[in-house]
Fold this protein.
Amino acid sequence: MSRADTTLTPYLPGAPFFAYRDGELWAEGVRVADLAHEHGTPLFVYSRTAMLAALGAYQRGLAGRDALVCYAMKANSNLAILEVFARAGCGFDIVSGGELERALRAGAAPERIVFSGVGKTRAEMRRALQVGIGCFNVESRAELDVLDAVARELGARAPVSVRVNPDVDAQTHPYISTGLKDNKFGIAHDEALDAYRHAASLPGLRVVGIDCHIGSQITSTGPYLDALERVLDLVEAIEAEGIALHHLDLGGGLGIEYHGEQPPAADALWQALLARLDARGHGQRRLLLEPGRSLVGNAGICITEVLYTKPGPVKNFLIVDAAMNDLPRPAMYDAYHAIAPVRPRTEPPQVWDVVGPVCESGDWLGRERALAVQAGDWLAVGSAGAYCMSMASHYNSRGKAAEVLVSGDRAQLIRARESINDLWRQERGLALD
Ligand code: LLP
């Protein structure tokens, strides 16, 4: 590639799995334009090799330890993606009965599933007990009591961890920070010991571990180390009372690069955490982790077509065919996603706000982006593998986008584009007079 080409190369996280070659964007060994042509837009394109590489960093960091990576499938729960992680030996972190069924359908071993979330219903608990999941991460005293009752009705003992809220600032967006005292998640650090005494006294429960998760898109090691210290203090206090904890679940939360962030690599993070665990004499303890975003976020892009260019006196708008229903993160969290042309043009760029067709001013994908584009061009929205499709909606009666998984030079449709029939299948016409 010439020097001139290099300077023109647009910014898109996800290299080398998403990269420019011969003047256009490739997903591994497949031309992104060919996929857009074949499947239409908006289209999510995922790289299996990128997912396995991200998982590999965790596996390297944890090599030689008794550890299980439970993919937090809320980040992206497409069945084929779950199969990728199940086949690679992952367990799953689930937060609903629906996610449980998805994990089972994808071939997950039930004992490798952990069930998080503040509002598990009795029916969800029953089903999870019947299939034999590995652990319930319990988030309140009231939930301990309900789970105990449900388990006893079934003649079972529910394996539990208490999710402890360590009151640590994850230094991330307030909506995705979960480990502070004023969050709805977990049992406060000060109350955790008492919750464990209570759990140990209930005949329908079997205490197996301790759990904490402090937030998402964490880009430094400090908050993890702080949380670990606080959790280990508790582990020691709980075990001093004769309640054995077989595993330590440190949750998920590791951030990714959206726009120049430099989060620690998973192996580096784990080196630091393991050093601290070893220093405090807990190095042999079984570890569970629940990463979501860091396994899939930069393993996906969303391809969208420019419908109209709309230059204006104050702002120039690029109206594209993807919208907040496909990519809700900008509207919800003011999030930045890189936007880059699939086939870069050589003309000088202009500055655009990239917006979707939904009837909301909040329907924007990127603000003030320098792009050389014309109507009909395809753009790639970066870092779209996590919390995009899994948070997509039907707002404005827009069917959900199609999804394709690439592996080497092969591509497979893993979700067909929704039709209007898919959208109104559960609705009934008016039958009242
Ligand atoms: N474990 C628990 C208990 C969680 O609540 C979460 C995420 C995870 C694991 C996975 O965290 P991750 O490794 O993906 O950071 N929709 C937001 C993110 C919400 C995260 C919720 N909990 C976003 O788009 O940024």
The chain is about 30% helix and 25% strand. Confidence is low (pLDDT under 50) at residues 1-7.
